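LOG
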Amino acid sequence: MSSLPRISCVILCHNYGRYLGQAINSCLEQEPGNYTLHEVIVIDDGSTDETQEVCLRYEGDIKVIRRNRQGFGRTLTDAFLLSSGDWVAPLDADDWFHPAKLRTCVAAMTSETLFVEHWENVVDSLGHPKLKDPHPGGNTSTLLVHREAALGLLPVSNEIFFHALREAGRGLALRDPVTFYRVHPRSMTDRSTPGVSQDYRAEVCVALADRLRAMCGNPPEWATSCRLRRIARHFRALASGHKVESSVQREERLSALLQMPGMLNDMFWARDPITPWLRALASAIAGQPLVRLATDHDQRAHS
């Protein structure tokens, strides 16, 4: 790279004031590397807790955008619209970065990179390890996204929209666990009610597929019209996979099986490997979910 990439760390916060200080510190205390920490922004999405007081402690070191509640999708969209760095590192306020996050991601980049994702350490509400080993990422706090490339995908409802850059061959997947991902009873995602999380993910994937199809008439620099159509098929196949899992979790085996032909068709046109389809089919036939739901014991253990 001819010049150091400027990185904007943007923290998304709604009533996570009790965790916010740790998130802010993790941005401000990043280890030096071949990048510039351009800015640290907190978007306070209508918090009614101690969020504002926490932000005041960092006056002069961070930029705070406080507004009425607009929801996660709008806040994630604004993370890219309101920042001014070359790259955006979004961070949910209940998570925090490892000190080596930015330098590790930047060191792996090439001139073709527009999207970096990495693994995560999963912790409980107190920050104690919840899983023995690191876990694959892909969620908000495990990404570094080229801002200009992301702008063409806006508005977004979920970070999954930015995965399109990876599917276009412009992404990197690192195994370094350089984010701490906190799972707790007040997490935004409902992981305990059968089908809820999977239905939401299916809805996001369908919306992304529709967006990519709409972009085919005026494709971005990072993908041709043909590639966009293939990526759209990929996300439609993912949506079907989520719907299958949702149905299995709800013990609706017939509904799960009815999703299988459409999923296979989309995977064929996307040129995706067939393994996920075979796993989904086996799950639907056996009535055994692939994704473990959080239990009441899990909720009590981390309250």
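LOG (cont.) second protein
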Amino acid sequence: MRTSRRDTFSRRFMFSGLGRRLAPLVWTTVVVAMMAALLAPRDTDPGLSQLSLTVSDFAALDRGGPIETAMASLGVVSLLLLVVARKRLAAIRGLPSVLLAIWGAGLVLAAVAPTDPLTTQLTGSAYVHRYASVAAFAALPTAGLVLAGRLNSTAGRTSWWLRTLSLLAVVGAGVMAYSAGPGGRELIGLVERLMLGCEVIMVGVLGRYVQGLVPGTGGIEGVPESGPQVTH
């Protein structure tokens, strides 16, 4: 029994430590991912346009470079965030958890599976990359909208940020889909980067909120330690 209690205490201590460092870890990864998406293409080929080429287009030209590394890191950190959030936030359990898991796993898979550089002839790996990316970037704003509805007024401005960023990401996805088809890829790179910005910032907002629910971090005013209850 003593060993069992010691192991339980060790797990709680490690979990609490991760919770207290959660927001800085998430926001650091968010900033790195955004910098990679915006700045790394300049090193790949300064002559290529970030307005008409997607992040995946640039990543395909620099396999294992900063873009893929940053996106894989963001996926892993998002999964860590989900593990902590499920312990502290009742509203995230169920559908939001599934969608956040798809987001995190999708990013990792898309980073690992290479796409084809600047070509319409896609290999099997490129199809895996495409559908993993689509699943990830569709899952996160959906999770944000569901979670914002469940938290409602109990989370204050966090609900507003989640809802607003999710809606902007959905609009961006629609514009990007049009650009990829009838729009002839006009400004597809710009639209994608704006959509990505909304989604990664959403992860940072959620990370900051969840960190506030961990004991010893100051808490969030009006929210009990066990987290707000699910509202319908």
